[in-house]
């Protein structure tokens, strides 16, 4: 059981500022995922929470206690790394027991906890094996088991699945989700590059960019209501299509004109001073569908099709040099390269972002709240 509170947390290496004042409240038992582009500071933030990095400003509290100066071993946290970091000459049992032996726990207590963790992770029959006789996925489970036996208040994962092949990643991801269910009181913080891991595991996702938080929300909040252009294009794959546009008529429902002078009503309120302003107009590839009549958003020539079986990614030339529109359409519809296609989307799936990149829908939500 541990809430985490981060207030204006900063980290710099010499003159190089990496974290620029992170404010974040994590509730006990939450599964939080940090995502963001390479180098944005995800690992630094995680390592700062663990105490492996000393923060250079702000405060960090775990379970109500300020831990800025508390060493890692006394923070009640356990961390699982991308490289499993198992001792190769020790059996699975001894690898899992090692930390407790060092902490001088009784043999009976060690045995109880190792066996309980092995049971949760389905490692019981491998307890006498050496790591080299196990698959990558099994080794990562041992590393997770080694963390579980410590009975941590907070569990930290730094890209734990990135060394596994695709099939093992899926299997181990599901195990981590089940592990969370079996430890509902344990707070978990997880760093990943993988959108699917973030969307499926997180109670809330924290999107970071250049050492700052861009948005915090449930996976569906971030997907449906991205607060700004960065989050809109970072969450979701392929990325949201963004086009330059102008607000023709501001109001409860805005009228937006975009490429080729087409005008679309968007059920997002814009203030009267937004009238005539240049904005960005967004629509996700998977929200587009083939329009049969004259009611369409985009018309263009199919430049390329990537058939993935269940779906196909259709790249449509809508007159923007080197920037085709991407549509994710069902795989069973025949779409021929070189033909003209019309695409539409439901008005509810359209997004408008102001000149500062912030979503208009989000502004309204913020005011209403
Ligand atoms: N010890 C260090 N000294 C100087 N700069 C560092 C140090 N450790 C990390 N950095 C820099 O801090 C920035 C953030 O690194 P960090 O590893 O936290 O990013 P990340 O978001 O986890 O990246 P990735 O997704 O590539 O793992 C990077 O620019 C990195 O070069």
Automatic annotation (TrEMBL):
Principal subcellular localisation of the protein: membrane
Highest taxon in the source lineage: Bacteria
UniProt KW Acyltransferase keyword: no
One annotated GO molecular function: ATP binding
SMART domains referenced in this protein's UniProt entry, alphabetically: AAA
Enzyme class: hydrolase
Membrane topology: Peripheral membrane protein
Keyword terms of this UniProt record: ATP-binding, Cell inner membrane, Cell membrane, Hydrolase, Membrane, Nucleotide-binding, Sugar transport, Transport
Record's protein name: Multiple sugar transport system ATP-binding protein/alpha-glucoside transport system ATP-binding protein
